[in-house]
Design a protein that fits this description.
- The termini are far apart.
- Helix content is 51%, strand content 23%.
- The radius of gyration is 16 Å and the shape is globular.
- The strands form two sheets. It has a four-stranded antiparallel beta sheet with strand order 3-4-6-5. The protein has a two-stranded antiparallel sheet with strand order 1-2.
- The longest helix has 18 residues.
- β5 and β6 form a beta hairpin.
- It has 193 residues and is an alpha+beta fold.
- The chain contains nine helices and six strands.
């Protein structure tokens, strides 16, 4: 577990990231990812990880970077990993419900899903229409270089569940807030099938 002052992510991030690498690249690739990490981060990953636990987000980010380097896929690997995490974290009832909805409705529920993965930051959904939405994040600085690919992965799975395709994510603005957080806006667009 982490200290109070550390930015933490919920265990689902860790468990699903490890499962993703094992499933898509194999246990040998996971061993190579771990070998790229600091001893402290490696120990965390080698400890029993629980979905309901909270762990150091810095360790997660270091591992996500190592996955991108090890696979040669960079941010695409992170987006795919978060698409997988979104899929694995939703129970069957949510998935059925989202399949009956439209993509705008599903993206509109993004703020309800954020706390399932993180204890810091928040997201708001603004200007939702049939084929696009504006997401506004208020996050600590440590999230900045990770946020775009993660937003793409989560949004892709959400839109796919509701029958849409072709998700595109574009950062539209970024500014420092007075409370040590950053405000970042993304336009998410998709194609209705």
């Amino acid at each position: 577990m982490t200290q109070q002052s550390t930015i933490v992510a919920r265990g689902a991030n860790f468990v699903f990231a490890r499962n993703f690498v094992h499933q898509h690249y194999g246990p040998e690739a996971w061993a190579r990812v771990l070998a790229r990490l600091s001893p402290e981060h490696r120990r965390l990953w080698e400890s029993p990880l629980m979905l309901i636990g909270t762990y150091d987000f810095g360790a997660f980010k270091a591992t996500a970077a190592a996955v991108g380097e090890e696979t040669g896929a960079g941010d695409r690997a992170l987006a795919a990993m978060y698409e997988y995490a979104a899929d694995q974290s939703l129970n069957t009832l949510y998935k059925v419900f989202f399949r009956l909805a439209n993509p705008a409705f599903v993206i509109g529920n993004f703020p309800k899903l954020w706390p399932r993965f993180f204890t810091a930051g928040e997201v708001r959904v603004e200007n939702v229409s049939r084929d696009r939405a504006e997401l506004r994040f208020s996050v600590p600085q440590i999230f900045l270089d990770w946020l775009g690919p993660a937003c793409l992965g989560y949004s892709s799975k959400a839109v796919q569940l509701a029958g849409g395709t072709g998700v595109r994510v574009r950062e539209i603005d970024r500014r420092a807030g007075g409370d040590g957080k950053w405000e970042v806006g993304y336009e998410v667009s998709w194609v209705l099938n």
